[in-house]
Amino acid sequence: LSPIVELNVGGEMYTTTLSTLKKHPGSKLAEMFTGQPKLRTDSEGRFFIDRPGTYFKYILEYLRSNQVPTQCIQDVYREAVFYDIEPLVKQLEDSPQIFGELVARKQFLARVPSYSENIELMIRIARAEAVASRRSSVIVCVVRTEEDAAKCQDALNSLDMDKKSVVKFGPWKASPSISDLLDCIQMDVEAKGYKISFQPHVAEKGFRFKSYDFFYKFLFTWW
């Protein structure tokens, strides 16, 4: 019979067998218990894994019965990747949530130049303007084509403001629209804990282009 193993995973206690933990020999989890266990123990002698214990129950359930979780998919996927349980990783990647994120949204954003850097730039600008304020705003220029990028530059030249504070996204070669990209920006900024909304930027009188052609105002609310 396989030895019984007691685990402390991030403060959550689990009891299982060594054969269950080593079910997938090439996994990182199996390697932890191959030969001399490569883990510290807590004060009660349980093997300690410094990971979120809440989601380990789904990992364990998969190892015991091949049951793929239907809850907390994103979090379980992250843990499955950490433990390098390849069959579970592949099955989770086929789920609508992970498939949509990895294959659809992430692949689109990979075609938007400097997307992640621009998200961080937006946050830095908003934080710099937040002193003694409830809200701060960031002007974003979104262009889908090279032609629009040239028009955007002309429009920027006629803006009566610091052009360095305008964050430019695009162009890109993919089917999603400007509104899709705006939704992605809001989603990814909110994922970092910020409260944010956006609307077409209302330009000053005499501006050469309609405000909603390229420019949007993202509003950060701090309190």
Automatic annotation (TrEMBL):
InterPro entries: BTB/POZ_dom, KCTD7/14_C, SKP1/BTB/POZ_sf, T1-type_BTB. It holds the Pfam family BTB_2. One of its GO terms (biological process) is protein homooligomerization. Residues 3-100 form the BTB domain. This is BTB/POZ domain-containing protein KCTD14. It comes from Tinamus guttatus.
